[in-house]
Amino acid sequence: MSLRRNSLFRPVKVLDQSLLTENRKFLQEISRRKLLRGGLTLGGLGFLTGCDVSDHSAVRRMLELASSFNDSVQAAIFNPNKLAPTYSIDQVVKPPRFNAYYEVERVKPVNLTDWKLELAGLVQDKQPWTLDRIHALPEQEEIIKHICVEGWDYIGQWSGPNLKQFLQLIGADLSAKYVAFHGNDDYMESIDMATALHPQTILATKYAGEPLADPFGAPLRLRTAVKLGFKNPKWIRAIEVSNTYQPGFWEKQGFNWFSGI
Amino acid sequence: MKSANFENERLNMSAESVGPPKKRKMHPIPLRIMHWINAVTMIIMIMSGWKIYDDEVIFGFLHFPDAITLGKWAQHGLQWHFFGMWVLVLNGIAYLAYGFATGRFKRMLLPIRPHEVIKEAIAALTFRLKHTDLTKYNAVQKVLYVGVITIIVLQVATGLAIWKPIQFSGLVGLFGGFQGARLAHFLGMSAICLFFLIHVTLALLVPRTILAMLTGGPKESAEPEASSEARLSKPAQ
To answer: Got the DSSP string for A160-181?
Structure first.
């Protein structure tokens, strides 16, 4: 492991070296054994380095338990009436930032001619929806921040039908716990019903006033202002309302399920 | 004015120890437990935080090597961070409650007099600072401890802002937006690392202090001794 010379943690100017020579006698008095003994304590803490600790199944279980506890804490913190800040149109980043579990070159565009939105689970009217029908629904526009779990963010302008209104339209059981979105690329993410019913949760069909481009989820994707980016599946082919918890693509990799912001 | 303060301090001290003077160890056992829980948790938070940082660096030149980060991938770093935060916050609340309720903060961390801080910082850097009585913190220690406690509280605030930027959007605003809160969280971490470096170095130089944090250390004297200035070579006024 080589320390960078410009490390932030390395002061530009260390102790004045003349002090060391002036106080040589004192420094020699500091017993080397004492420093070694102290160093052992630091070494003991050093066992935490690397990934080994988290590989033990007991530790992994403890961390997973903490993560599901955090799900319930986040659900309690979540205020269904609290609106996310919105931004002005000139702050919109064009095009949006691409992100998926694969590179943009590997995006398989959805064939729009035979595309239909499937409905499943606790829904009264399971008849699939054509794109024309979806486009005929009232459109809601949201200029909101997309925040990725990695730490980056950008402002995007999304529009499409409001999810709550859509769920009401199809006779979904709004007291169910989860709404899951199945993507065309075998990507699945489920969200809590409270988030699905949030006023700033929409089924986006457009970005910056234009139909969604292929890399960003055409023809239909989820955009909710109150979840991290990965909870917004693209290329949706089916919506499922249920009371059964289904871990999504990233939760299976260890990310937190609720991931509300 | 100074002597008036000093008299107040004496009065406060004697008011606290009514009846026969109780002699207790300078670090009572609850304090020692909380200190070491905090030490381990802070290391977990810092190392898992570095893992999370690496996923989207703030400074292009700074990337933490895997060997010093906690968790195999970013999600494992996040798992550690979101586990550690509970230990840190609950332990921190217990520590603050203990510090205020027992009067320990007032007794050991106050008052902080700027002229003493300057004088004793110079003394420390020239290895002239004496540690005759461990139970009395010098001005440099007081500043460092109050400083790091404040920074950890701020770190919890910036952490909350990053975790829940919509639910606590007001908090995010205080730090100049989401990226501002991330930067503030990073700077808080840097300050804690700097404290850690100084704290551990100084403790290693005076190993009795480490022993005191393990076994409780010497008994606190019932009578307040003269102000910390007495431990310095007589200052030339």
So the answer is: E-BHHHHHHHTTB-TTSSEEEE
